[in-house]
Amino acid sequence: MKKNLQFSNTLILWYLINKRDLPWRNTTDPYLIWLSEIILQQTKIAQGTSYYLKFFKEFNNIFYSDYINEDMSLNSLTNFREYDVPCAIFVWC
Length: 93
Fold this sequence. Notes:
- By secondary structure, the chain is mainly alpha-helical.
- It has one domain (23-92).
- The chain is 61% helix and 0% strand.
- The chain is built from five helices and no strands.
- α2 packs across α3 (45-58).
- It is elongated.
């Protein structure tokens, strides 16, 4: 038990020292966190960050779901290699 606690504390300390400043870490909005999770399942953080910011700029909250269609969400990520991401976002919205 003590070793587990020590390991946990070491890991948390490492994270606090080394964490990167990423846009989805600056919010408590579940939609934006969910959006980052979907995007990051398909790409690296460096590339995913630009897609996240681009998608967020166009569809910055879940209430856009009433106004978007699949073509709009696909067009907003036209360079995205994996179309599963905008499709997933569209389906869930």
